[in-house]
Design brief:
heterodimer; A: 1028 residues; alpha/beta; FAD/NAD(P)-binding domain; Alpha-Beta Plaits; 7 domains; five-stranded parallel beta sheet; 27 helices; globular; B: 222 residues; Rossmann fold; four-stranded parallel beta sheet; 9 strands; 26% helix; elongated
Chain lengths: 1028, 222
């Protein structure tokens, strides 16, 4: 977006879009794309008070992340961490999922868009479908399963994947026999127990009014068939990385058993990964796809874990680009401990070998030709924009770049070229999951900043009857509802027998069985029965509480019962599914499970969820680009925000960066930003400010600050905290730094080029040395930004004097994403790149005024000494010293001193302690554009927290019976959230507003004086006692 | 506080294997804090013994409780109405508590359930170290607040000895030399001149050398 446009859009947003004659903005938002980014943006917006229409092209949300097996660098199961977000999205009162659906057209202005959305018929009524799967079971038409990358078959009546949200089936018109053969078949309709199949359904177009649109259609993987010499289409054992994810997945085509796809289904003994397939190649995509190095390492490591034998794995690569937070250590472990072979070579051809094996011929680093036979070869395919996503950009009228990704600018990383339309995730540029999640939150933040005044105008509120007063002394009256789950349970377990058995259990006054206890009409029945039978406890024997407890709890609330008076017995996942071959024993086990649930239900107590009071003020610690952007966004959202800056002026590191690699002027931007922050009516800036005390909990923090220059003390009450303490450039101790004025760091070079360009233009030869203070024993982290920095300055030097020799001594060039284009440009302009090894670093010699550099050429394998005019050290990016702050605020840091987020993948800007967020270099090294996105994300998350004034404190919290407390500090020391404290009375106290209910303290307390409500000892013991 | 560690279960089983009715008595004092003998440990030991008896095909009754402090008669009295029903009691209190329990219920068999180790500090959770040997005449004022009796392996009053090597004691590389600590501490607080006045021989009668000790505080006695 141009600066003028940006300013106009923001000015408009401050006025709330109420320009002359303009209608009030609409408090609803459309999110196009239901991958992890779209899900995150939707949740942030819905929790911030906006109604969200989430438009997804497939019949279920989840995107590519749902297809992945594990995620780097923590090896978390992808589905396990995504599933709770899917469920939350699916159940959110203020998120409407339209799937499958596509945007057809858009009209109107920012704040008041009208969007036409086409919804093809699903042929299954969403309201009626109970997700039992009978339609798919009975459907006679098999088709390739695209979710499993065509490695398995599914039916024409299908659900996208087992955990899909919505958990509803669809009939694929293109393959369905009924549609192809003119009215025959209808097997699904015949067998559907819920009467949900509707062949008369018509395609629909809906017009939706929204205030803003976030587009995040994601990416598709590059089709390697385009490289004919790889024979992907011909050789069965050449697979893409996404196919390999499915092969590894427990829900994949081979149920997680590592076998190759050729007919022999052999367990592979040797697997190769080929990097940069469809990336870093001007014939296909010149950009770097940014994620393939890490996923290849992850797949290699996980494949070795899967194989019960010594699997040989080799990764053929050009540069190993493990540039993200904690990625380098992951790479080092794979290389040094887990036996993954890394071979630096780009492979040209895959040849056939006997028995469907594959021959790879390559030149090793010394230039020697080698051949190896592999059982399988995985193509590390890159990311590209799909035809449909490109079409979406055209439909919405936003500019795309030369690679078809949505065009954004470094200083407005989520603003598409058209005001009111935002882009995030892989459609904005190749990126991994946490970056996508950050950008998604940033886009939500950008929307909140412009639509803040119309929060809660389009949202729905659940009406609930008053709660009945159930006292502990009241005799329990338990109703038991046993679910058949279609045939899932009823086909194995004797459900009528179980229902009658339930009637014999203590305190049970009512029993019944349902075909589907979770169906909408059953909820109505349960409510009615609770009333008629005067029930005060409910037990449902069905599936898992993970997916269904929340639903039944809502039914309890609708019936006027406290939601904690509910208990489930999982007789499906833990019984009928696993014991389907032994129905009698399964029935016996179901009785045990039900008896246990009833025993606990009798002891359940109603719990009160107290409303959380939230101070509406935000505090941002750090006044650099990240801190200021976070504050500005919060201010624009309408929240009073205080910025604390320890220096006497705002700006941080950005003061020393003059332009971005794209050529954007940083100082102009910074001045503008400081002015905006300074003039903002909601913002207050305290410079020379030092945090000396911190107390309180989410929504109610108090920070004590010493404010310079007089160092007066000030107490600030606030509801959220954003930590943006930034980073610094490492002061090298190596390469004779400090011994000569022209041995300088990148930041020093930047200043020098700014102040004395004419001096620099006279230089004849300059050498950059990469990884100074990074990727070594002392600091194993990659600093991420120095490779692009070297390229940026090399280009600048070439611009000053095209004859200048510029040599970059590097270990791996990590110009990820579109940065690769600048790396290529620099080579085209004659910048030389030579690789050195950690154990054989270049030597810098100072001889009086003269400088020289000696390095080993990796082709000649001989040392080369050259005189140079300047040596530029690409020094590491380190965090600022935050030891004291970390201990005051009780937020964790890693070994390098960067703060540790709540979850590396899905909560990249949250701390585990609620109400505290982080952004910028305090999190890990990053570019200005990335810092801005992350700071907007932090502001979005913080704003969502402040906006949601309906939050309550969970009833499931730990409490102390102080009489026997020994004040031993065990709870204080073992709580992962640092909640328990010893009071002035020498007993432990646990603040329920802070307690996460994890139960660690209760299980560790040596005096046994801590209990967790709803999981009290007697409630758990009752289950165990009744079992034996 | 007093530091103790749980006894190996085998040792406890050896003592109680013939009992039919057992009480495990924790103590809410020091042994709770060092996680050796609080109610939680009492319950764990009781569960473990029940498992042992059940596996051996024996129906034994093992109950658990925890007393406020087993070094007080008033709190030991909490057991008076129920102790008769048990064949024996395993006390998880320190040696003082075990003995006082045995003293109070002189016909009852009492077994110790923990090994009482020393008076010390909690450095971290699960890491305790000795600081005081209760010699009866505190000399910490002279030694920079670091006790040579507790911290020097030889209890030397004028150290260090020739076995001190790079700040470590010859007894073990993991043991800091007490006198090195004293030296460093006195240096920090500017009292190195104390080394010029050797400590005179100590009167050990207030320690164990004078036999079992007793405090009579006439000012407090009622």
């Amino acid at each position: 977006m141009s600066k003028e446009k940006e300013k106009a859009a923001q000015d408009q947003s401050r006025k709330g879009g109420n320009g002359k004659g303009a209608a009030a903005p609409v408090g609803a938002v459309m999110v196009v794309g239901g991958g992890v980014a779209g899900i995150q943006a939707s949740l942030d917006l819905a929790n911030s008070g906006f109604y969200v229409h989430l438009v997804e092209a497939k019949p279920a949300i989840g995107g590519v992340m749902a297809q992945l097996d594990k995620t780097f660098p923590t090896n978390d199961c992808s589905m396990c961490i995504l599933s709770p977000k899917l469920v939350e999205c699916g159940r959110h009162l203020n998120i409407e999922i339209l799937a499958p659906a596509e945007v057809q057209s858009i009209s109107g202005e920012p704040g008041n868009f009208k969007v036409q959305v086409a919804q093809p018929a699903r042929y299954i009524d969403l309201e009626k479908c109970i997700g039992c799967g009978l339609c798919a079971e009975k459907c006679p038409q098999k088709v390739p399963d695209e979710f499993n990358q065509g490695l398995a078959m599914r039916k024409s009546a299908y659900v996208l994947y087992p955990q899909a949200v919505p958990q509803k089936y669809a009939i694929e018109k293109e393959t369905c026999i009924y549609f192809r053969k003119g009215g025959k078949c209808k097997a699904c309709e015949k067998f559907c127990p819920a009467d949900a199949v509707d062949f008369e359904q018509k395609d629909q177009v809906r017009e939706l009014e929204v205030g803003a649109v976030i587009m995040t259609p994601g990416f598709q993987t590059f089709d390697p068939a385009k490289y004919s010499s790889y024979h992907y289409a011909q050789f069965p054992n050449v697979v893409t990385s996404l196919e390999f994810e499915r092969i590894l997945s427990a829900s994949g085509p081979f149920a997680g058993h590592l076998v190759r796809p050729s007919k022999d289904r052999k367990e592979p003994k040797k697997i190769a990964w080929l990097q940069c397939v469809g990336s870093r190649d001007v014939k296909t995509h010149s950009y770097c796809s940014a994620v393939c190095c890490m996923y290849a390492i992850k797949e290699a490591v996980i494949a070795k874990e899967h194989a019960p034998y010594d699997l040989d794995v080799a990764i053929f690569f050009m540069d190993m680009r493990t540039f993200g937070k904690d990625f380098e250590q992951y790479y080092n472990r794979a290389k040094d401990e887990q036996g993954v072979r890394f071979i630096r070579s780009r492979i040209h051809t895959i040849d056939a070998a006997p028995n469907d094996d594959l021959l790879i011929t390559y030149l090793d680093e010394s230039g020697e030709k080698k051949s190896e036979i592999f059982d399988m070869v995985v193509m590390s395919v890159g990311m590209e924009v799909s035809r449909k996503a490109k079409q979406l950009a055209q439909t919405l009228g936003v500019d795309i770049n030369q690679h078809d990704f949505v065009n954004t600018t470094p200083f407005a990383p989520v603003d598409a070229s058209k005001p009111g339309i935002y882009a995030c995730g892989a459609m904005q540029g190749p990126k991994d999951i946490p970056e996508s999640v950050m950008q998604a939150s940033a886009a939500a933040g950008a929307v909140s900043a412009t639509l803040g005044e119309v929060r809660w105008t389009k949202t729905k509120v659940r009406e609930t009857p008053p709660q009945k007063d159930i006292r502990p002394e009241d005799q329990p009256r338990i109703g038991v509802f046993v679910c058949n789950c279609g045939i899932n349970i009823g086909g194995i377990v004797d459900v009528p027998g179980l229902r009658d058995y339930a009637a014999s259990l203590p305190n049970v006054v009512y029993t019944t069985d349902n075909l589907f206890t979770c169906s909408q009409d059953t909820q109505g029945q349960i409510t009615k029965i609770i009333e008629e039978e005067n029930l005060n406890r409910v037990v449902v024997a069905a599936c898992t509480p993970i997916t269904h407890e929340a639903l039944f709890r809502e039914t309890m609330i609708d019936a006027g019962l406290n939601k904690y008076l509910f208990e489930m017995a999982n007789i499906r996942n833990q019984d009928s599914w696993v014991h389907m071959k032994e129905p009698e024993k399964a029935t016996e086990k179901a009785k045990d499970l039900l008896r246990m649930a009833v025993a606990r239900a009798s002891l359940l107590k109603p719990l009160v969820e107290k409303p959380l009071t939230i101070n509406q003020r935000a505090l941002v610690i750090g006044g650099g680009v990240a801190g200021m952007n976070a504050a500005l966004n919060l201010g624009d959202q309408g929240f009073e925000t205080i910025i604390l800056e320890k220096e006497d002026q705002l700006g941080g590191n950005a003061r020393r960066v003059h332009h971005t690699i794209e050529g954007q002027e940083v100082q102009g931007y910074l001045e503008d930003l400081i002015e905006k922050v300074g003039n903002h009516p909601k913002l207050q800036i305290l410079t020379g400010a030092l945090v000396v005390g911190f107390s309180g909990y989410k929504g109610n923090f108090t920070t004590e600050v010493l404010v310079g220059p007089a160092m007066y003390e000030r107490k600030i009450d606030h509801g959220v905290t954003v930590v943006a303490t930034g980073g610094r450039e490492y002061r090298p101790r190596e390469f004779s730094y400090g011994e000569h004025p022209r041995i300088m760091t990148q930041l020093e070079l930047g200043d020098f080029l700014h102040e004395h360009p004419e001096e620099a233009a006279k230089w004849q030869r300059v050498t950059f040395i990469q990884c100074v203070g990074s990727r070594n024993k002392e600091n194993p982290n990659c600093s991420r930004i120095c490779c692009q920095g070297a390229v940026k300055y090399a280009l600048q030097l070439k611009g000053l004097n095209p004859e200048m020799d510029v040599m970059t001594l590097y270990r791996d060039m990590r110009t990820y994403g579109f940065l690769e284009d600048y790396y290529r440009e620099s080579r085209e302009k004659g910048v030389l790149f030579s690789r050195y090894k950690l154990e054989d670093p270049p030597q810098v010699e100072v001889d009086g005024d003269q400088l020289s550099v000696t390095f080993v050429d990796h082709v000649l394998e001989r040392p080369i000494k050259m005189p140079v005019d300047a040596v530029i050290l690409s020094a590491a990016a380190l965090p600022n010293d935050t030891e004291e702050l970390a201990s005051l605020v009780k937020i964790p840091r890693n070994a390098a001193g960067f703060f540790i987020e709540a979850h590396a993948k899905l909560r990249p800007v949250d701390f585990a302690s609620e109400g505290i967020f982080l952004c910028g270099m305090a999190h890990s090294p990053k570019l200005i554009s990335e810092s801005i996105a992350q700071s907007m994300a932090a502001a979005s998350r913080a704003g969502a927290f402040l906006a949601d004034t309906t939050q309550t404190i969970s009833g499931v919290t730990a409490y102390v019976s102080p009489e026997r407390c020994a004040a031993c500090l065990v709870c204080v020391r073992s709580c992962p959230y640092h909640v328990p404290q010893i009071t002035g009375d020498n007993v432990s106290e646990i603040n329920p507003a802070l307690c996460q209910g994890c139960g660690t303290c209760a299980s560790e307390c040596p005096a046994e004086v801590i209990q967790v409500s709803h999981f009290e000892d007697d409630q758990i013991a009752a289950k165990i006692k009744t079992l034996y | 506080m007093i530091k103790a560690i749980p006894k190996p279960i085998e040792e406890i089983i050896e003592n109680v294997k013939d009992c039919d009715k057992l009480l495990i008595a924790g103590c809410d004092g020091c042994v709770t804090v060092c996680e050796a003998g609080g109610l939680k440990e009492a319950k764990i030991l009781a569960s473990a013994l029940r498992l042992y008896f059940t596996q051996g095909g024996k129906q034994a009754q093992v109950d658990d409780t925890s007393l406020t402090r087993q070094c007080e008669k008033e709190y030991l009295a909490q057991l008076s109405d129920r102790i008769d029903q048990y064949d024996a009691v395993v006390s998880l209190a320190c040696g003082c508590g075990v003995q006082y329990l045995a003293e109070m219920y002189d016909k009852k068999v009492i077994y110790p359930g923990v090994d009482t180790c020393f008076m010390g500090v909690n450095e971290e959770r699960g890491l305790y170290s000795e600081r005081c040997q209760a010699c009866g005449r505190c000399i910490l004022a002279e030694t920079g607040g670091i006790c040579p009796i507790a911290r020097c392996s030889k209890r030397m009053l004028n150290g260090p000895c020739g076995g001190s090597d790079k700040g470590k004691c010859e007894v073990s590389k993991d043991v800091p030399c007490g006198w090195e600590l004293i030296y460093e501490r006195l240096k920090t607080v500017g009292q190195l001149d104390r080394f010029e006045n050797p400590t005179v021989p100590k009167d050990w009668t207030t320690s164990r050398d004078g036999g079992p000790r007793k405090i009579v505080r006439e000012d407090l006695r009622i």
